[in-house]
Amino acid sequence: MKYYTSTTEFNCGIDLHARQMYVCVMDRQGKKLVHTNVRDNDFQFFLKLVEPYKHSLTVCCECMFGWYWLADACQQAGLSFVLAHALSVKAIHGGKNKNDRIDSEKLTHLLRSNLIPPAYVYPADKRPLRALLRQRIFYVWRRSELLARIHSHQLAHNRIPAKQTRRQRDPWKEQLLAAEDNELRRSALKNDLAMIQHYDDQIQSMEQELMRLTKDLQGRDYELLQSVPGIGRSLGLTILYEVGDIARFPTVKDFVSYCRLVKGTVASAGKIKGLRGAKLGNPYLRWAFGEAAVIAKRDHYVIGPLSQRLEAQMNGNKFKSNTVVAIKLARAVYFMLKNKTVFDPERLVASMQKCFRPGRRQPGRLTGRATEATPPLAADHVSCASSTPVCVGQASSPADSIGTCGQVHH
């Protein structure tokens, strides 16, 4: 866990809510200078409270649904602002009693003691574009629920579901309506089809707007992402805007951890007792790289055969092998965005070869061109598929860490 280092003379912790915020200001010695509740989130009144300390003040609040306006207001007022990771803060200062007054005071104590685990403050000028992308993802998921609903209803009445394509749904709609003889079910089906059509129109309009803005703002990085197997238009947009500035990740380990592709470990007396932290990070990036791994396994002529071997080595655990491929793609994306280079398939293949145990008979039965396309396996690398679960984080020391898929490096 990393901590924010406060360099100002005064520190302010705010327990923020939708309609109020409890403010606590302390000096370096822990003396409380301001400790009061601000109704209706009146920021001008807040500035009057902290006026004597504005020249050297850091403001901190936990990451909750309504922090955007406070971060932007502090930036405009020239105040240093730090966003605290809510889950990590909860683990640090958990106590018997809890209320707004205590929370703001503890938050200030953590800030002046340099014990605040910071979260990333996404730039205000880029938030609307990311919000539009997330709205598109939300609509896609809702449309998928409607399509699955129609599919299950067809199976419930012992019908073979009609095949459909996203580009042309009219023949599919006609088959569904023609097969339905009950008037009420037919009416319900029309409602679902109308909602799907509405989602199609809105998603198409949003995609056009996103593509236009992306070509103007980050066209080069977007084209680089398009060269990665499994990453198309939609996944490329998701990765591009959820990552933001790649420079905010000092190492590739930080990036892979932020993508939820590695887990932390619980160790005691030199032994790993379990895993934790599976939901720490960005869920959209975890979803995007997971989808990219599945598509790359299906379509790429080299990644597919290697993934088959990796899955067989992991006793048929498809989820583990998919996670390993997702980690390899995430590592590639990190160095591509950082160095502004296109995807290198040879480096990915060499990295995946390290995941095979030396001296073990490799599974065969590869079909088609996969047999000819699969490179020879490297026999001089440490295994990435040991009995330890895939994607665990660092242990008590770097020498004992397991890394992304059994290796020390991520």
Describe the structure.
The chain is built from 14 helices and 8 strands. With 410 residues, it is of the alpha/beta class. It folds into 3 domains: 112 residues, Ribonuclease H-like superfamily/Ribonuclease H (Nucleotidyltransferase, domain 5, 2-Layer Sandwich), CATH 3.30.420.10; 89 residues; 159 residues, no CATH class. The strands form 2 sheets. Strands 3-2-1-4-5-6 form a 6-stranded mixed β-sheet. Strands 7-8 form a two-stranded antiparallel ribbon. Strand 7 and strand 8 form a beta hairpin.
List the main descriptive attributes of the protein structure presented here.
410 residues, alpha/beta, Nucleotidyltransferase, domain 5, 3 domains, six-stranded mixed beta sheet, two-stranded antiparallel sheet, 8 strands, 11% strand, globular, disordered C terminus
How do the helices and strands line up, and which of them pair or pack?
Elements: E1 10-16, E2 20-27, E3 32-39, H1 43-49, E4 57-62, H2 68-76, E5 80-84, H3 86-92, H4 100-112, E6 118-119, H5 127-156, H6 170-179, H7 183-226, H8 233-243, H9 252-258, E7 264-268, E8 271-276, H10 283-299, H11 303-313, H12 318-339, H13 345-353, H14 370-373
Parallel strand pairs: 1-4, 4-5
Antiparallel strand pairs: 1-2, 2-3, 5-6, 7-8
